[in-house]
Amino acid sequence: MRSNLKEKLKSASSSTNWLKGDVSWVGVKSVSSFQTNNEVNLSLSALAGIVASDGHLDRNQPVIRVISCDEIFISSVIVPALRIYSGKNPKVIKSISGFGRKKFFVIVYSKNLWNLLKNKFNIPVGAKSAKIKPPSDLDKKERLDFLAGWMAVAGSVTFERKTPKIEVWSKSLDILKCLSEL
C-alpha cells in the first residue's frame, strides 16, 4: 500500500506516458540529464517532507541530497520538484549499497532552497535522523503536505486482519509525535 501514496504523488505530474516506453537508461552508472517530466504538481512542503525523511542538507555547502531506491519516484517526482524549486538541474548518481541494492543519490546546489528548507521547515544541516524537529510555523495544509512527503518515502499503509495500519519511520520522537497528532 506504500506505493499508493507514491502513485498519488506521481499522478500529480502532468504526464507519465514516457514511463511506458524504454527504461534502459536506468542501467547507467551516472546520469547527468535524468529522463523526467518537466512538470510536477508537488508542494514545497511535500518536497520538504521527502528531504527531511530521506535526504539531508549538506553541512559545508548549500547542497540538498535525497536518497532513494525507487528510480521511478526519483525521476517522476523528486527530480522535477527539485528542478522547479531550485531552478537548476539535479544530478542523479546510481550506486550499489553494501547489501547489493541499487540506490540513487539526487543532488542539487541551491542556496535559496537550502535556506528555505533549513529555516522554514526546520531541517538541520548534516546528520539529522535523531535530532530533527518538526516545522513549527506551518499552516494545516503545509503540515499535511509535509506528512504526505514523509509518508511517500518513509511510511506505509498495510492491512492487518482487514484493518488498515499506518506506519511511519523516524528516529526522531518529536517528528513521530507531530505526525501522530495530524
Structural class comes to alpha+beta
Major beta sheet, specifics? 5 strands, antiparallel
Strand order in the largest sheet: 1-4-5-3-2
Per DSSP, what share of the residues sits in E-state strands of 2 or more residues? 15-25%
Helical proportion?
25-40%
Uncertain spans: 8-38
Total strands: 7
How far the N terminus sits from the C terminus, by CA atoms, comes to 20 Å
Rg for CA atoms: 16 Å
| Average pLDDT level | 75
Task: Quickly count the helices.
Answer: 6
Overall 3D form? globular
Order of helices and strands: HEHEEHEEHHEEH
List the helices and strands and how they pair.
Blueprint lengths: L1 H10 L18 E2 L12 H11 E3 L5 E6 L2 H16 L4 E6 L5 E8 L1 H9 L20 H15 E6 L2 E6 L4 H9 L1
Helix pairs in contact: 1-5, 2-5
Description of the molecule:
With 182 residues, the chain is of the alpha+beta class. Helix content is 38%, strand content 20%. It contains 6 helices and 7 strands. The chain has helices at 2-11, 44-54, 71-86, 111-119, 140-154, 173-181; strands at 30-31, 55-57, 63-68, 91-96, 102-109, 155-160, 163-168. Strands 1-4-5-3-2 form a 5-stranded antiparallel sheet. A two-stranded antiparallel ribbon has the order 6-7. α2 crosses α5. The chain is globular. The two termini are 20 Å apart. 32% of the residues are buried. Mean pLDDT is 75; it is low at 8-38.
Quickly list its features:
182 residues; five-stranded antiparallel sheet; two-stranded antiparallel ribbon; 6 helices; 38% helix; globular
Summary of the model, kept short:
This protein has 182 residues and is of the alpha+beta class. Helices cover 38% and strands 20% of the residues.
